[in-house]
Write a structure and sequence with these properties.
Blueprint (H helix, E strand, L loop, with lengths): L1 H23 L3 H22 L6 H36 L9
Length: about 100
């Protein structure tokens, strides 16, 4: 069971890497699509985690994978901030939007 859980975290890490690659290319539709895929993978990991007991080595592996996922997410967020600011400006919802 723990092998399945670690494999699921590896799958999530690979998906987050693909999301980062798409963000670097400015392919926000792909980022959004992969976000949905990742959400399903995270739910699967939660389901597996409820029945798994990890050894210290497995916990360390899980921690390394989670840190990689968090690094990817931070980089994606950094890449998306200018895009989100532009979108807010276009929609008139940003902090500098004109109020009527």
């Amino acid at each position: 069971m723990t092998t399945s859980l670690l494999a699921q975290y590896q799958t999530i890490e690979r998906t987050s890497e693909r999301m980062l690659q798409a963000a670097r290319q400015g392919n926000w539709q792909e980022v959004t699509r992969l976000e949905g895929v990742c959400g399903e993978q995270v739910q699967r990991a939660r389901d597996l985690a409820s029945a798994a007991t990890l050894s210290p080595t497995e916990r360390a592996s899980k921690q390394r994978l989670m840190l990689a996922i968090l690094r990817h997410e931070a980089q994606i967020r950094s890449l998306s901030e200018p895009w989100m600011a532009d979108l807010s400006h276009l929609l008139g919802t940003g902090p500098n939007a004109m109020r009527h």
